Amino acid sequence: MVEAAKIVEQAQPDILDINFGCPVKRVAGKGAGAGMLQNIPKMLEITRAVVDAVKIPVTVKTRLGWDADNKIIVDLAEQLQDCGIAALTIHGRTRAQMYTGEADWTLIGEVKNNPRMHIPIIGNGDVTSAQRCKECFDRYGVDAVMIGRASFGRPWIFKEIKHFLETGEELPPLSFDWCMDVLRQEVVDSVNLLDERRGILHVRRHLAASPLFKGIPNFKETRIAMLRAETQEELFRIFETITPRV
Ligand SMILES: Cc1cc2nc3c(=O)[nH]c(=O)nc-3n(C[C@H](O)[C@H](O)[C@H](O)COP(=O)(O)O)c2cc1C
User: Fold this and answer.
1) Would you say the CB of residue 124 lies under 6 angstroms from ligand 1?
2) In b/e form, how buried is each residue of 110-144, taking b as 16+ CB within 10 angstroms?
């Protein structure tokens, strides 16, 4: 991890985030990701070593604990803070929950309200609307909210939330064409960042999840074509045929 951290630092990122939250079997089952929740001394040793190895801020993301009987996050947060991390993101689920059930924000709130904690606490899990996001800030006092799945195919959720937090009012509905342009840009960015094949593969999941296409009559065939397209050009040609629901 120290060696990897030094390589990462050479790319000059703003921060280095250690992922102690990944629940998938091939990761957590090997003791990595959320698997580290079963070996706290090692998690702390790694965190301390990484913090000491680089000059950039090191942050950590993790879950409430390994399972329902081991929701250790309140103590763990203090221990991680003592390692010198700059901020902590907490996904309000255990490893055993994977992505099932509901995220439990009460423990995230407990961490934030622990008077011994002074680093920023970022809450995460099941935030799918501007209203819910505001509620999380108000009720649990977190310094920031992290949004994952709700942004799939809906990257404008951040714009919607920003507007709601700033004005207390919902952003007027965004036009279909504007949203399509955002999705096009997402495809272009993804292809530029990866390459055409991997970029297209990456955005498929986002297109499949996009609420923009929900309720369009007879969309099934277009959807299948969209998820099969292999080039940016093919995908954009299909985009041209899509008309918004009325
Ligand atoms: C497909 C997928 C990939 C993810 N990859 C990462 C990752 O690389 N690093 C990470 O910290 N979290 C990752 N997560 C977890 C999310 O960041 C987030 O903690 C989780 O989805 C809960 O938040 P949400 O309810 O807003 O989605 C991933 C989640 C999904 C569904």
Assistant:
1) yes
2) ebbeeeebebebbbbbbbeebeebbebeeebebee
The answer to whether the CB of 92 is under 6 A from ligand 1 is: no
**Ligand 1 within 6 A of 125 CB?**
yes
* Cα 203 to averaged position of ligand 1 atoms, centre (Å): 15
Chain centroid, CA 208 distance in Å = 18
CB distance 93 to ligand 1 below 6 Å = no
Q: How far, in Å, CA of 60 to CA of 118, rounded?
A: 15
Query: Which residue owns the Cα nearest ligand 1 atom 11?
Result: 19
Predicted confidence pLDDT, tens digits, the chain (246 residues): 999 999 999 999 999 999 999 999 999 999 999 999 999 999 999 999 999 999 999 999 999 999 999 999 999 999 999 999 999 999 999 999 999 999 999 999 999 999 999 999 999 999 999 999 999 999 999 999 999 999 999 999 999 999 999 999 999 999 999 999 999 999 999 999 999 999 999 999 999 999 999 999 999 999 999 999 999 999 999 999 999 987
Give the Å distance between the CA of 121 and the centre of ligand 1: 17
Distance 124 CA to ligand 1 centre (A): 9
- Entry pTM: 0.95
* Beta-carbon count within 10 A of 204 CB: 17
Q: Is position 83 annotated as part of the catalytic site? A: no
